[in-house]
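Weekly structure sync - notes
Attendees: PM, LS, DV (DV joined late)
Agenda: review two folding runs queued last week.

Item 1: First target. Sequence and structure tokens pasted below for the record.
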Amino acid sequence: MKLSRLLIVLLLALARTAAAAPFDIASIGVQQYKADDYIRAAVALQAMGREGACQALLASAKTNPGPDLRFFVLCRMLFTQRGTNEFRHPYYYRAYIIGDLRDWRLAPIELVDGMPFLLTANWGAADGGGPESAENYLQYCMANCDWNTYSFREVTPKQKSDALAKFLSSNKFQRRLTDFEQKFFSAQIE
């Protein structure tokens, strides 16, 4: 009996330690978008649970004030629309996105079989009021969105290429992609 109580106390202590583990946004590169970086981060954050992940993201956002694409992508991966509430885009960009923005409900990304593809390399300040901070968008998601029940996981090279093929053949593009655009998306899974 005492052994089982001790085991429960140890498991709870380990769970708290895991939930309190710091999240370092610097683990995600900023020079070139790589889907694997975001998948690894999402896996680590989901392992912390919603509360632990939100606290870790908030702490990281406070040390990285201002708009940050990395937080926007992670929020779009980790949260989902709650009921009929809108899951709005971050107020940061006036982006060149191929097709109709309304078709890309998770812009600035599209999730295909767990792979987050960045839809644009052209980001600019939002109309009216300037860009939104990472902390502000995270607070919006925490208050208005549900935690995603999809469990992100590392993917194999074959799964990546299958997801890319599916993504590139999407009718949301509304036209044939240029060679440059195809290379831009392909580079995200390399």
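Item 2: Second target, run right after the first with the same settings.
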Amino acid sequence: MKKILILGSEGQIGFHLKKFLKKKKYKILEFDLVRSIKDDLRKSENIRLIKLVKKSQFIFFLAFDVGGSRYLKKHQNTYKFISNNMKLMTNTFEVISRFKKKFIFASSQMSNMSFSNYGILKNIGEKYSNILNGIVVKFWNVYGIEKDLSKSHVITDLILKGLKKNKIQILTSGKEVRDFLYAEDCCAGLEIIMKKFNIIKKFNKPVDLTTGKYTSILNIAKIIKKILYEKKLIVSIKTSKKIDTIQKNKKNLPDKFFFKFWKPKYNLEQGIREIVNHYL
């Protein structure tokens, strides 16, 4: 049985990936600060990390101090945010380098946005990964059921506002567009990258794990409103005149080469319905 180490196994992607791979009968080695203080990647020469990396056959490096746009707006320009992420990357890449393990590093489509500390940090992680022969996977707004609502992302935020307040308050004009990927599709893609690691590595470029389809935040709110109306809830939508300060309306175009190996199964409305049903 293949032993898979998931760094950040309780996070937005790691939590779903852990469950997905367990269903496929992989042996999952969990590692997350939420589980135990022993799982703190900011601590150099972490004994438990060293032991698990040594015994693992593949590593998903998903751990990062990050959250949705509200979290980034509040924290990414602080010393603690930069320090936390630099420490956890330095320590983790050091151990991976020591044992020369195959791994995936979770980056972001924001890694080329130099106005964002989050983007800069992910860009540094990409450079480490390339040197160590890992595969960089860029995520484009993965959404799904979330455990830590203090770091929740936009779709979860809007659903909970609709359920709790019968009003979906968008913090911007809602005109900015995003490419959203449902967590289940994300996990299926990650498994394929792991299984075809050597083949995909030959492309010598990051994998954009994305649907390739953009939609506006306002359209997300309208989909949620429609679903809640079907469930006999009357919801209004209110927008703001504020602009997007996280991505500053910068729009990247994904490289679609990975579609040769994988295609998402869930459309946006199907994925949102799954989350609404969970929180009802």
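Discussion on item 2: The longest helix spans residues 79-99.
Action: LS to circulate a short write-up before next sync.
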